[in-house]
Amino acid sequence: MSQSDAKDGFRFLISSSQGPRPEQQDSGICLSNDVQGTALLVVGDGVGGRSGGRLASQKLTQLATELWEERKGSLAKPAEDLAMLCQVAHEHINSEGSKLGISPRTTIVALYLTPKQAFWVHSGDSRLYHFREGKLVERTEDHSLLEIMVQRGAVKEEDMGSHPDQNTLLQSLGGEEFVAPSSGSAEITPDDGFLLCTDGFWERTKPEEMAALVFAEAAEAKGLLADAVERAVGRNGPKGDNVTVAVALPARIALPARAAAAMAAATVMPVKAAPTRAALDRKQKITLLSGAFLLLVVTPILFFWPEEKKPNTAATPAAPVAIPPRAIPVEKSASTPPPLSPPQAQPVPVEKPPAQGIPPSRELPLPTDPPSDRSTPAAGPTPIAVPLHPFQPERAKPAEPNKNKPKDFSIRDSSLEDRSKPAE
């Protein structure tokens, strides 16, 4: 557990647990510059056997730290710099893996904050949650088969954590081909907060529980986050996943009852108070008196009302009036996604180890053969259309054939290798 405080902006916390897994393959960092009011949060969930996942996620956070130090805590072009971080990490992960004869991969969710704006990128199923005044504004959409099923209405969002296909990824860093990450940005207010996490956390934690963490009092936030991580580990069971969470808490909002209010607002609907017995009796009396008065007034009027003269039926009927046709509204189907243009490159499914109580992932009609242990499968017979995130840019072209010399941001590879160390 680590903590970073900002004077007038955000407070930052990060917590991680290995859980019952034999190895910690998650990595996360929170870097802040109090002078400029900027921060960089990065979380990665490693994928691959033979310590490949640990290598990939640690290489990601190492490169993010190098970028932060080189730019002195300020990214001139945040969206481009975050996308470049993903591509450089992809190339370095492949380079390290080729030396060991393995194929390491990692998810990524990265957030860069300024006093007025937030920028983020993500690839895989690690998520970013954006809250405002105790309410969830948005979350990132996973690059997974299960996310497509949710968007098409085949699976409910609340059932994602226990679905047998939860571990089939369509995109990550590492592997033969680089696929550009999805990105987003937002104007922020002093009432905004963010939470970044791996799937080991969001699968077992409700959004209202996350809101309670984001808007917790400063003195309680650290303990609440540690409890939430351990609670997620317990819910995952004896064969559960690693858990990593990074939180950007709004420094201005630090009220003792804020967390409870955020959770209540997210889960409880307002209930209208039932009328009292006295109010009911009063309403009944008013209704009876009103009815009696109308009866006394209307009855004489109807009795003495003169008979109405019948109209002349032989009169010439009026000319018909043309009535314009009324447009028929067409309701869009919520379960049918809009047509998509074919992607430039076919995503590579990657299979993550299943959590406890969840049957192994079944074979699905993916564009490739069923993945095994999140390794790269062979090409399949029939591709399917994969919907993209609204913010996802066009996928970048594959890196140049010469993979032995990866790109970086004016940093020698030797310096990176010297600085690499296991995550705590």
Automatic annotation (TrEMBL):
Compositional bias annotation for Basic and acidic residues: 392-424
Keyword tRNA-binding in record: no
Domain PPM-type phosphatase: 11-250
Keyword Membrane assigned: yes
Database matches in SMART domains: PP2C_SIG, PP2Cc
Highest taxon above the source species: Bacteria
InterPro entries in UniProt: PPM-type-like_dom_sf (IPR036457), PPM-type_phosphatase-like_dom (IPR001932)
Compositionally biased residues, Pro residues: 336-352
Keyword list, A-Z: Membrane, Transmembrane, Transmembrane helix
Residue numbers spanned by region Disordered: 329-424
Spans through the membrane: 286-305
Protein name per the record: Protein serine/threonine phosphatase
Originating species: Chthoniobacter flavus Ellin428
